[in-house]
Amino acid sequence: MSDQKQTKSYRELHKPASEFETRSDYLDHELQIMQPRRWKLNLPGRDFNFEWEDLVPAIAGTIGIIAMYSAVMMSWADGLTQAWPHVTLGKEFAIEVARVEMLIPALLFCVIASGLLNPRANLAGNHGPMIPLIGAIALAGAHPLALAILLGVFGLLLSYFKGGSKLVNLTSEGVAGGLLVFLGFTGAFSQIGLIQSWAKSIDMGHVGLIVLAVNVVLYAFLAKINKRWLAIPACAVTGLVIALAFGAGSDLVFTTEMGLPNLNPVYWWGSTTEGWMLGLPNLEHFIASLPFAILAVAMWSPDFLGHRIFQELNYPRKTENVLMDVDDTMTTCSIRQIVGTAVGGGNITSSWGTYMIPAAIAKRPIPAGSIVLGTLCIIIAILGFPMDVAVWPPVMRVALLVGVFLPLLEAGMQMIKNTKDSQSAGICIFSAAVFNPVLAWALTMLLDNNGLIGDKERAKKLSKIDKILIPGGVLIICVLAMLAVGMFEAQYGIPALL
C-alpha cells in the first residue's frame, strides 16, 4: 500500500465509507491516503473531502475563538483606557474589533491559507497565555499595531530558519507530557472557578454546580463511547440549556446587532479620535512592544508542540503527510498577525487549539474543517447575536473546559510512560508552578537534553548545539524577556527592567 500511495492520487485511493467495517476505519484510511500540496492549490474532491465530523472542530473552534477574541479585546480596552488619558474604550469597541478579526482573517487564513493553500499549516487562532499580560502590555506603553509587526517579523524569522520544528524535536516526551499536564490541570481549575464565580455573582451558586456535574457525566459518557470529539458542542449546549432551565439567564443580554463592522483600516489606526484612538505607532511604541513580542514568539513552540502531539496521539500510523507542520504554521501565524492587526484587529495569535484538539480527536485533517470554521466565523460576525451567547459563562467556560483543558490533561498523562518520563514531567510541572509554563519548558528542556533528568541515553545522542546552545539560548531569551516586562514582579517583587 505504501508504494501504491506514492503513485496514486488521493482521488484514486479514496473509497466510500460503506466499504469499511466501521466509521473509524474509514476516517483512518482518509488520513493515510491524503497527499496535501504545500503552498499550492488543494481542491475539495481532488485532495480532500468534507465529512460531517468536520462540523465538530469547526463549531468548537468558532465557540472558542469568539470567547478568546472577546477576552483579548476587553483586556485591550481596559488596559488602554488606563494607560492613555484621552482613550475611552468599552464593550461596544471590543465586540466591533472581535468581529473585524472574525471576518477578514477568517477568509484569508482559515478558508484560503489553511483550507486551500497549505493543509499542513494549522489555523492561526489566539495566544491564550498572553491574555493575562495584555493589561501590562498597554500600561507599558506598547501599541497593538507595533506589537503585531514585531511579533510577525520575529515569527517569520523563526519559521524561515526552521527554529520551531527544531525546538519541538528537542523536547522529550517527558517534558512535553509535564507541560501538557500542568496546562490542562491549571486551566481546568481556572474554568471551574470562573463558572462558580459567575453562578455566585447572580446568587445562584447551585446552578454552577449542576452545570459542572451534568457535564462531567456527559463528558465521561462521550469518552466511553469514543465520541469525545463531540464534547464542545454537546457540553456547551448542555450548559446553556441547564442554566436557562434553572432561571439563570438574567445576565444573558443580546446587544450585538446584525451587520458588518467598520472594515476601513484608516478608521481604526488613522487618528486619535476614532477606532483605537491611538493613531499610528512611533519608535517609542516599538521599543515598549519589543520584549512582549519576543515573549509571545518564545511561547509559540510549546503551544504548537502540544497541538501536534494531539494529532500524533489520535491519528493512526502512516499519517505523517497530514500532521501539522510547525514551521508552516508559524509562517501563517506571523503573516496573519500583521495582516489581522493592520486591518483593525487586536488579537495576539498562535496555533488554534480549540480547533486542532477536537479535530485530532475526531480524526480529521486540517483543510475541510478549516473552510467550514472560516465560513461559520464570517456568518456569525455578520449576524452578531450568536457572539452574545458564546461569551455567556455557562457556554464559554464549559466549552474551554471540555474542549481544551481536559484533553490537554489526558494527552499529557498518556505521554508519561515510564519512570524517566515521569521524572522530567515532574520537574516541568514543579518549575511551571514556581515560574510559568514557558520558563518551565525552557529550563527542563535544558536539563533533560543534558541528561541531568530523564533519559540519559537520549542525551548521549544529542550534539553540543542541541544539548547546550539551543536550549540555553532559549532559556536566556525567556528569562530576559520576562524580566524586561515584569512577569516576576507580582510573585517575587522583581521590578520590570523596562
Automatic annotation (TrEMBL):
<feature type="transmembrane region" description="Helical">
    <location>
        <begin position="97"/>
        <end position="118"/>
    </location>
</feature>
<keyword id="KW-1133">Transmembrane helix</keyword>
<feature type="transmembrane region" description="Helical">
    <location>
        <begin position="391"/>
        <end position="413"/>
    </location>
</feature>
<feature type="transmembrane region" description="Helical">
    <location>
        <begin position="468"/>
        <end position="488"/>
    </location>
</feature>
<dbReference type="InterPro" id="IPR021794">
    <property type="entry name" value="DUF3360"/>
</dbReference>
<keyword id="KW-0812">Transmembrane</keyword>
<keyword id="KW-0472">Membrane</keyword>
<feature type="transmembrane region" description="Helical">
    <location>
        <begin position="286"/>
        <end position="305"/>
    </location>
</feature>
<feature type="transmembrane region" description="Helical">
    <location>
        <begin position="55"/>
        <end position="76"/>
    </location>
</feature>
<feature type="transmembrane region" description="Helical">
    <location>
        <begin position="204"/>
        <end position="222"/>
    </location>
</feature>
<dbReference type="Pfam" id="PF11840">
    <property type="entry name" value="DUF3360"/>
</dbReference>
<feature type="transmembrane region" description="Helical">
    <location>
        <begin position="366"/>
        <end position="385"/>
    </location>
</feature>
<feature type="transmembrane region" description="Helical">
    <location>
        <begin position="229"/>
        <end position="248"/>
    </location>
</feature>
<feature type="transmembrane region" description="Helical">
    <location>
        <begin position="179"/>
        <end position="198"/>
    </location>
</feature>
<feature type="transmembrane region" description="Helical">
    <location>
        <begin position="130"/>
        <end position="158"/>
    </location>
</feature>
<feature type="transmembrane region" description="Helical">
    <location>
        <begin position="425"/>
        <end position="448"/>
    </location>
</feature>
<protein>
    <submittedName>
        <fullName>Membrane protein</fullName>
    </submittedName>
</protein>
